[in-house]
Amino acid sequence: MYCDLHNHLYGSLSPKTLFEIGKANPSPRWHLFLDSYQKTFGQAIDPKRFFEEYGNLDSFQKLYCFNEKAPFSHFQAKFNLIIALVVFDEKEIRDVTRTVLKTHAEQKVSYAEYRLMFGKEEPKEGFFRKLIAACEGLNLAEGDLNKEKVSGRLAMSLHRDANFERNYDWIKNWMEKEDLIRNYLVGIDFCHVEEGFPPKDKRDFFDSVLRDNKAEPDTALAILYHVGESFQDKTPFSAARWVLEAAKMGAHRLGHALSLGIEPDFFLHQTRTESRQERLDQLNFELESYSEICGIGDYYSKEELDISRKQLLKDTTPSTNFTMDEKSIGYLKTFQNYCLSQIAKTRSVIETCPTSNHLIGMLPDPKAHPAQRFFESGVSLTISTDDPGIFDTTIEREYELANVAGLNSEQLETIRKQSFLYKSTVLSGREIG
User: Which H or E run includes 382?
Assistant: First the structure.
């Protein structure tokens, strides 16, 4: 049996289930899907004829499922179909949670953690009712599956840019009063667009959560953090540093972390534009960690880094360009290896999702996935499905793709077994692994 630790609840809906939900919904929120889909894919969709034109399951699946190599914005345009078609009330959340866990049990998943996100302005009462409904759905599914010893838990995805501290306070208070929430809610997650939201901005919040975990282990919550998945706004050097920063700040699991392991040749001749402050942050980090980085391999001279920093301090332009030439490619390998070596010293676990990473990361082929590099670097690693409904995948398929990427059967079995030790409750200190 498998342990799937990175899984978004509504992204787990099969095409058939989502179609049935949408068709029964008297008021789909079409505005959340139509404009973004047309802008991204150049295709106008008539909502009045939607269930006629896509009434065939095959045609609906082609519209719904994401199977192209394209950036995160393209994935989001597809995911918006889910947001448009669902009702997202308590009954539906309860039913979806129950259905999804039972479906995964049929696919040999015995433990899963599902991420669920509410709107930025979801009122407190609505947040509570929907959270309870998700917990009830998991409880009902476990009752249905008790002979199989299958269990599911929940992680609330908080918005990077709004109300995350307030929502966290609500959650902690409810966990003290409601057994159902305390039993089923095991983590908090930050997902969606990561560009523009450096981990350093969450440092104080992470510290607060970790202090709470230590003081109140019965309601401890793991910190799950999507990082290094999509990084069009920065160089691969800065993107790798972001993953390391999140790990050092205490994130228990790191979602995707592709920037740490993609082979540097992938970036050759690319020119990246990043903010002046981001570039300064990177140069400051490299200078502060210079001796340790150079202990891993060849790198820029300290003089080069210092000159670049002094030039930026004098410059007032808001952004800077950086071209990945042959020299930079070689040094990126060193920097990635340094970050991996440092993360291996922490308790952070990388959640790798081969199908999702291959497509959104726009890797040349499945063999280019860095799963083997992650494993051989000594970092803790788990394999997951991300959004198995929209990616049309299963946990077994993800393990097969990890095998294509270079992990042998013995290594895959090690990852499968160890994944159960990386449950949120174990990492947060709520239970002993």
Answer: strand 380-383
